[in-house]
Design brief:
Layout (H helix, E strand, L loop, with lengths): L3 E4 H14 L5 E6 L6 E4 L1 H17 L5 E9 L3 E7 L22 H5 L7 H11 L4 E6 L3 E9 L10
Helix pairs in contact: 1-2, 2-4
The structure holds adenosine-5'-triphosphate and magnesium ion.
Adenosine-5'-triphosphate binds next to helix 2 and helix 4.
């Protein structure tokens, strides 16, 4: 990993901007990001890879279109990032399996959409290497939200190294 201190908010905007430039017409993006800098100790390229996969999935598994909502919530010691779509959704009993290598829900349905089933397994490894967690919420036919946390870099206090 090539770790550096960087503002996650501007990185998130940058990635969303890049998708927005080549956006399919039937998808709308909504951003709910805070108006401040939030510093995270990160491997930028790796986190870009995580968000690229989550956003690509949100678009790919939303054949009817709809809104993709990007949120960033600041808590005391961490941020929670969420990316919500209004696509086909995932059955409750498969929600944990999607983070396994090569797992794809309903092979017949997703075969034509392409992919290897590695994206979320790699994303999980990367998020956990940053001491974060990743999970999914979904309702079949309604949509999916992928969430992950990352530890915030604390402000240096007197007496701490
Ligand atoms: P790859 O990312 O390797 O190109 P993939 O997209 O199939 O292939 P993952 O990103 O790991 O693989 O996702 C695993 C499976 O989880 C997908 O095949 C799909 O069935 C399901 N899935 C992931 N994201 C969503 C989503 N936003 N909506 C509905 N299903 C999803
Ligand atoms: Mg994928």
């Amino acid at each position: 990993l090539h770790m550096e201190k960087a503002d996650f908010v501007s990185l998130f905007h940058h990635i969303i901007d890049r998708f927005e430039m080549n956006m399919p017409e039937h998808i709308e993006f909504v951003r709910e990001l805070p108006n401040e800098r939030l510093y995270v100790w990160m491997d930028k390229d790796k986190l870009i890879q995580v968000m690229d996969n989550i956003i690509t999935n949100a678009i790919k598994y939303s054949p009817e279109g709809g809104t993709i909502t990007f949120k960033l919530l600041k808590q005391r010691h961490q941020i929670i990032v969420s990316i919500a779509d209004q696509g086909m959704g995932i059955a409750y009993d498969k929600l944990e399996k999607i983070f396994e290598r090569f797992y794809r829900v309903d092979k017949a349905r997703t075969r034509k959409l392409g992919g290897t089933g590695l994206g979320l397994a790699i994303s999980k490894e990367i998020v956990e290497a940053h001491h974060g967690r990743i999970w999914a919420k979904s309702k079949e036919g309604k949509g999916t939200t992928i969430l992950f946390t990352l530890p915030l870099m604390g402000k240096k206090r007197r007496g701490s190294k």
